[in-house]
Specification:
single chain; alpha+beta; Glycosyltransferase; Jelly Rolls; 7-stranded antiparallel sheet; 4-stranded antiparallel sheet; 41% helix
Length: 607
C-alpha cells in the first residue's frame, strides 16, 4: 500500500520513501516476525506487514475466489441473433427433400434512402430480390465460405451493392438446394459500427422476431419453380404455406450470479482464461496446494469432453458467438494460442497425451492459419491490413515454446525466437525502451501510444520464452538483450507511486493494475536470472506494495483495464473501462505474487 497508518506515537510511513536496500531489510524483518522474534524496534515493520500479507496468501485469496465463482454448468436458452448475422436455414424449414424451390421473406428497414453493401454466403444456388427486383444470382455449384476474420469483421463468398428506400423494403431469397441449403447475410460495416439496416418480419404470425424470416414453398412439395411475378403475387395474396422457424434451444455456460466479473464465464475458452488457468498451475507448484492443479485439470477436461456438443451448436445451429465458439472460429491468435496454454501445462505436468489433438490443432493454426507479413511476422487484418499487435507475442510464443518441450520440436523454438526478434523490430522504440501497441503495414508506421498492458504482454511472452528456450539456441543471447533493454525502459517509466500508468509515458492516465502486475513479474524474473541488476529489486518490491492497494482481503482485484484494441490517440486508452476481477489481469496479479515470493527468497539467500 502507498501509506499505512501506525498506532500511538507512530506516524504515516510511505513505502515509496524507502529505498531498495530498506525494503530488502523489511522483508528480512518479516521473516523474523514470522518466527515470533518480536523486538520493539521491529514494530513499524510489523504494522506494515499486518496489512500486507505474504504474497502467496494474496495469490491464494484471489485463486480461491475464482474457484468459488466458477460454474461448470449449462442452462438451456433460446438462441439469439449474433453479430447482426442473418441465418436463413432452408434445411431446417423444409428438411432434406431433394431439390426444392423455396423462398424466404423478410423486410429490411432503413431510416433514409441509402446504398449499402451486403455480404452473402450460400451453400446452394440462390437468387435475391429486393422490392421485386432481382439484384443477385448465386453460383450453380457454390462452395460455402464464411469466416469471422476479426472481432465483428466477416468474410463472405460475395458482396452485393444494395439500394434501399427509406422505410420498409421487401427481400426475398429463392433457393434451389438438395443438401439442407443455408444462406448467411449481413450488412458490411466497420468492426466498431452498427448496421444501418434492420431486418423485420413481414408476417404478423412472428411475435418474437429473433429470426424474422418467413419460409414458403410452392405446390408439389416445392418441386415446381414459379416466375417472379407469380411469386410476388402469391406472396401478396398469401396463397402459399408459410413456415416460421422457432429459435433453437442451445446450451450456454452459466455465469455464477455471485461472480465478481459477470461479462464472461471463467469456464469458457478465451485468451484471458487461458492465461489465468496457466497461472493457477504455477500457483499449485509454488504452494504445494494440489487444489489448483485439480481445478485446472477439471477446467481442461470439461472443455474437452463437451467439444462435440459445442461443435454441433456452432456449425449445425449457426451459434457463432455461443459458449466455446472461439475454438471453432479459429480466426485469430486470441482464439488459439493463449487459450491452449493450460492444456499444454497439464500435459507437461502429468506427462500425458490427453489433449494432443487439440494442442496440435492450435499450434498448427499459429504456424499456418494466422495472417503474416512477407517476413513471417504474425499480424492481423484489423484495424488496418496488415497490423502487428504487441498482444500477439503473448498469444503465440508461450504456446510455441511449450509445444517445443512437449514434442521436442526445434521448429517451435525457432518460430518463437523469430517472432520475438521481429516484434522488437516493428514495435520497439529505442528512445523510451518501450513498445508501441501496433505497427501498420499500410503506412509503415507505429501506432501512437505506449499502452501499459501491450508492454506487459511482451514482458510475459519473452520471460516465458527464456524459461523454455534451450540456452544454446542461436537466438537466446539476442532475446536476453531484447528483454534487458525493455525491462530498463519499464523501470524508467515507473511512477513515484510505484505503479505504472495505462499509458506508460502519460501520468495523466490512470494507474493500471494488470500492467503493473506484469512488470513486477518480468522484473523479478530478470533480477533472479541475472539479466538486470539487483538494484532494481527496490522498484519491484515497492511496486508490489503499491499493487496491494488494488487487492482486498477477499480476493477482489480492482482497476483492470478491459479488452482493448489499437487506438489512434491517447484519449482512446484513457477512456477504457476498468473492471474488478477481469481475467485479463487476474493471472498477471497471481503471477506477480508468485514471482515476488521467489524474489524474497532470492534476496534473502544473496545477502
Amino acid at each position: 500500500m502507498a501509506r499505512q497508518q501506525l498506532t500511538g506515537h507512530r506516524q504515516y510511513l510511505s513505502i515509496k520513501e524507502i529505498d531498495g536496500d530498506g525494503l530488502k531489510e523489511l522483508f528480512l524483518i518479516r521473516k523474523l516476525i514470522m518466527k515470533n522474534i518480536l523486538i520493539s524496534v521491529f514494530f513499524f515493520a510489523a504494522d506494515i506487514f499486518a496489512q500486507n500479507p505474504e504474497p502467496l496468501t494474496v495469490a491464494k485469496n484471489i485463486a480461491d475466489k475464482i474457484i468459488s465463482e466458477t460454474s461448470f454448468a449449462f442452462s438451456e436458452v433460446e438462441q439469439k441473433l449474433a453479430a447482426d448475422l442473418q441465418v436463413i436455414d432452408f434445411g431446417k424449414a423444409f428438411g432434406n427433400k431433394g431439390k426444392v424451390y423455396a423462398y424466404a421473406l423478410a423486410n429490411i428497414s432503413v431510416n433514409e434512402n441509402i446504398k449499402l453493401k451486403f455480404g452473402v454466403s450460400y451453400s446452394s444456388p440462390i437468387k435475391i430480390f429486393i422490392n421485386e427486383k432481382l439484384i443477385f444470382t448465386g453460383k450453380e455449384q457454390p462452395k460455402f465460405h464464411f469466416k469471422e476474420t476479426a472481432y465483428s469483421s466477416f468474410s463472405f463468398q460475395d458482396t452485393i451493392p444494395v439500394v434501399l428506400s427509406k422505410g420498409s423494403n421487401r427481400i426475398v431469397i429463392e433457393s434451389l438446394g438438395d443438401k439442407n441449403p443455408v444462406v448467411y447475410l449481413r450488412e458490411i460495416t466497420a468492426a466498431d459500427q452498427n448496421p444501418n439496416s434492420k431486418f423485420l418480419p413481414v408476417s404478423s404470425q412472428i411475435k418474437n422476431y429473433t429470426w424474422p424470416w418467413c419460409f414458403y414453398s410452392t405446390g408439389k412439395n416445392g418441386a415446381e419453380k414459379i416466375s417472379v411475378d407469380s411469386l410476388f403475387s402469391m406472396l401478396a395474396s398469401d396463397k402459399c404455406s408459410c413456415t416460421i422457424l422457432q429459435p433453437a434451444l442451445i446450451k450456454k455456460l452459466i455465469i455464477n450470479p455471485n461472480s465478481t466479473f459477470k461479462k464472461d464465464s471463467y469456464a469458457d475458452w478465451n485468451y484471458p482464461n487461458g492465461a489465468l488457468m496457466m497461472t493457477l498451475m504455477k500457483l499449485s507448484n509454488a504452494t504445494g496446494d494440489e487444489r489448483y492443479h485439480e481445478f485446472v485439470k477439471k477446467y481442461c477436461d470439461f472443455i474437452y469432453e463437451n467439444l462435440p456438443l459445442f461443435k454441433k451448436q456452432y456449425f449445425a445451429n449457426h451459434d457463432i458467438h455461443g459458449s466455446y465458439h472461439r475454438i471453432f472460429r479459429k480466426s485469430m491468435l486470441d482464439d488459439t494460442g493463449a487459450p491452449t496454454l493450460p492444456f499444454a501445462e497439464v500435459e507437461i505436468k502429468y506427462h500425458n497425451k490427453d489433449y494432443d489433438t487439440l494442442i496440435n490443432e492450435m499450434v498448427d493454426y499459429v504456424f499456418n492459419g494466422q495472417t503474416r507479413l512477407p517476413d513471417g511476422t504474425l499480424c492481423r487484418p484489423e484495424p488496418e491490413r496488415w497490423t502487428v499487435w504487441a498482444d500477439d507475442l503473448f498469444m503465440s510464443v508461450p504456446l510455441l515454446v511449450r509445444a517445443g518441450v512437449l514434442y521436442n520440436d526445434k521448429k517451435c523454438f525457432d518460430e518463437a525466437a523469430k517472432q520475438i526478434i521481429n516484434f522488437n523490430k516493428y514495435l520497439f522504440d529505442s528512445k523510451t525502451g518501450l513498445y508501441k501497441h501496433g505497427w501498420f503495414s499500410m503506412t509503415n508506421e507505429k501506432s501512437k501510444v505506449f499502452w501499459g498492458r501491450a508492454n506487459g504482454w511482451i514482458v510475459l511472452a519473452i520471460s516465458e520464452a527464456l524459461k523454455f528456450l534451450p540456452k544454446d539456441h542461436p537466438s537466446y543471447k539476442k532475446i536476453e538483450q531484447i528483454f534487458r533493454e525493455h525491462l530498463e525502459g519499464i523501470v524508467n517509466h515507473q511512477d513515484s507511486s510505484s505503479m505504472w500508468h495505462q499509458i506508460l509515458d502519460d501520468k495523466s492516465s490512470f494507474e493500471e493494475t494488470s500492467c503493473t502486475a506484469m512488470f513486477i513479474a518480468g522484473l523479478s524474473r530478470g533480477i533472479m536470472n541475472g539479466l538486470i541488476d539487483k538494484k532494481y529489486s527496490g522498484n519491484v518490491l515497492k511496486a508490489w506494495y503499491a499493487l496491494q492497494s488494488k487487492i482486498d482481503s477477499t480476493g477482489i482485484v480492482k482497476d483492470i483495464c478491459c479488452g482493448t484494441g489499437i487506438g489512434m490517440n491517447a484519449d482512446f486508452y484513457k477512456s477504457r473501462e476498468r473492471f474488478n476481477n477481469d481475467p485479463r489481469g487476474l493471472g498477471a496479479v497471481i503471477t506477480a505474487a508468485i514471482e515476488i515470493n521467489e524474489l524474497e527468497k532470492f534476496l534473502n539467500e544473496s545477502k
